[in-house]
């Protein structure tokens, strides 16, 4: 072969390899701020790496994650909860910017919650009107002269709900750690507390309690002021029960990393698995990474199956 030709071939081979490598971008996984989501994200990262993908983590609040997806700065969120995130997901989905990569086989609920002993102090619970009547039990220095509702950083407009239902409460927003430490303190002294909680979660395996029953959720409640007990404003209802939990991706991931998409579609967790993940972190004190490792060690055949039935990026990308 003539030297010039071989140089040209080498050049074009190198060029195509570079282009090829450039086309394989890392899969950017969103890390939110509650235990099971973090553990599941680390499990997903491990599996994507086993599949031959590169992975990056993007720290984001649930509110900001939609902008991250919209502006192509993140690729996947493994735990999108209907109760707190459906409306914002729907907007991006309708715009063709986000895709649904399937539901987990878990039924979920996110709402105000109280430990069971409160029913003696506040007869009529779990009805919200009983809670509204008992508001004085919940007066707290942080929200005085109103009752305190302890919320996390994830909810939809709770203050709007409180106003719509004319309750003498104020929201205090805290991180997940503070939610649980306040819950522990209240329970150890049998003191009144009403706070944001969700299922599946570690709490249901440890403490008896109930969600407050607000007026039944309805999509109209969030868009139509006329709907519901307060004719003038929206948000006069609770969050959905038996709600979905899904994986959501940046629309661009579909073409960019089809094998990652195949794998993510297969990764699913049920209620008891998810509460187990949060239990390992919150109750047993494992780091989220350690909890992910433990799950991978205990569920080898499950994830091997997911990998075996997904394409390999080197063959298709
Ligand atoms: C989003 N969360 C499960 C914390 O409600």
Note down, in words, how this protein is organized.
- This protein is of the alpha/beta class and 317 residues long.
- The chain has helices at residues 3-23, 35-50, 62-70, 82-94, 118-121, 128-133, 158-164, 176-188, 203-206, 219-223, 253-256, 258-266, 271-282, 288-298, 300-308, 313-316; strands at residues 27-31, 55-59, 76-81, 98-103, 109-115, 147-151, 169-173, 195-199, 209-211, 245-250.
- The strands form four sheets. It has a three-stranded antiparallel beta sheet with strand order 3-10-4, with helices on both faces. Strands 8-5-9 form a three-stranded antiparallel beta sheet.
- Strand 1, helix 2 (35-50) and strand 2 form a beta-alpha-beta unit.
- Helix 2 crosses helix 13 and helix 2 (35-50) packs across helix 14.
- The radius of gyration is 23 Å and the shape is globular.
- It starts with a helix and ends with a helix.
- Bound molecules: trimethylamine oxide.
- Residues 34, 81, 84, 110, 152, 154, 198 line the site of trimethylamine oxide (TMO).
Record keyword descriptors for this entry.
317 residues; three-stranded antiparallel β-sheet; 16 helices; 10 strands; binds trimethylamine oxide
Spell out the blueprint of helices and strands.
Blueprint: H1 3-23, E1 27-31, H2 35-50, E2 55-59, H3 62-70, E3 76-81, H4 82-94, E4 98-103, E5 109-115, H5 118-121, H6 128-133, E6 147-151, H7 158-164, E7 169-173, H8 176-188, E8 195-199, H9 203-206, E9 209-211, H10 219-223, E10 245-250, H11 253-256, H12 258-266, H13 271-282, H14 288-298, H15 300-308, H16 313-316
Parallel strand pairs: 1-2, 6-7
Antiparallel strand pairs: 3-10, 4-10, 5-8, 5-9
Helix pairs in contact: 2-13, 2-14, 3-4
The structure holds trimethylamine oxide.
